[in-house]
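Appendix B. Chain record.
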Amino acid sequence: MSRIDDLINLMCPERVRFESIGSVVQRSTTIRWSSVAGEAFQYIDLTSVDRNTHAITETQTISNANAPSRAQQIVREGDVIFGTTRPTLKRYAIISAEHDGQIASTGYCILRPKSNLILTNFLFHLLGTSDFSTYIEANERGASYPAISDNAVKKFRIPVPPIEVQHEIVRILDTFTELEAELEAELEAELEAELEAELEAELEAELEAELEAELEARRRQYAYYRDELLSFPETGGVRRIPMGSVGKFVRGNGIQKADLRSSGIGAIHYGQVHTYYGTSATEVVSFVDAELAGRSRKARPGDLVIATTSEDDKAVGKAVAWIGEEQVAVSGDAFIFRHTLAPKYVSYFFQTDEFQSHKKRYITGTKVRRISGESLGKIAIPIPSREEQDRIVDILDKFDALVNDLSTGLPAELAARRKQYEHYRDRLLTFEEALV
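Structure tokens predicted for this chain:
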């Protein structure tokens, strides 16, 4: 760090000045749809930003005829966007030349740096610091659907060293992110090779399908075989029964985000189903006190916990099978599905295209999307024998381990690199404030 220290000592003998984000960015602009009739734009919504790589992935083509109500903000190359809805999910990204002039959701705060004061990449790295995360958590509002205002984001005070210092810090941190991207690509290739070997050895006879000449990305391939395993022809002897006839939906209650603790009685908040849990869980990540747990409805081992509220349709109805040893308290905006089927079989079914297509007709709401327990009960689930359910779960668990296991090999190296980047990012972006 000696070069950074030397630069700061040389150029900032009286320490680094701090400014609010709002004072170092320009005003952004909104679109007038009536003036661009017939023109097409790429729409960056809240799910378009990858939370790990902070890259803009899938966008939707829109025009004045089909633009969502939140499609209002024009973005420019060099802008930094930060998701203000459920902000602790850390959806932030840099707008590249590819998306210059396109449209972003009003769920983003658009930060357009004044180039003479702050570099785009320097501001981008600042949004990942622990100080900014702590500020966001302290200033978000709303229990079930937390958000932070653009004004609050822009009030956060950041160090603004001279441009030469910013360039050197950005150079170091960008080196870390480039290495991380290389590891991501290497991980992708390695997992695809493992999947191909696993398929050839164990799944070819089970699935009765030809392996495609080139494997798709691992998650798409996993989704394909999951849906294949959980699809049964209407004439194949497998009954489809409405879930309300094979189990009972019980609404969770009484637990807010502020009630969660690091010890006590196990609890699952609906927001954690979106952010922390996968297909199943044997341990919880948070707890509540005994008094609140006593008033709360609880999931028993084998029950499903289903998040019934989200900002986008795909996430509505996301489920986790609770297969721990004890009962756990469940928050509102979630349902407990009590049934006699194989728990993980039901959880995997909730991930299929079949379930997704059926649930769409029952989703309600505009800004906040919901589905009721009564509606979930109308969706039919295929019910093969328990032996077949267990066989399907066993196969899908092998895929799930290959795709998601972050405990060994290259994924562990990638996780270590991310932690190393975070350590140096926070160290490089920590300054002593100049005395005014």
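Further analysis of this model is presented in Appendix C.
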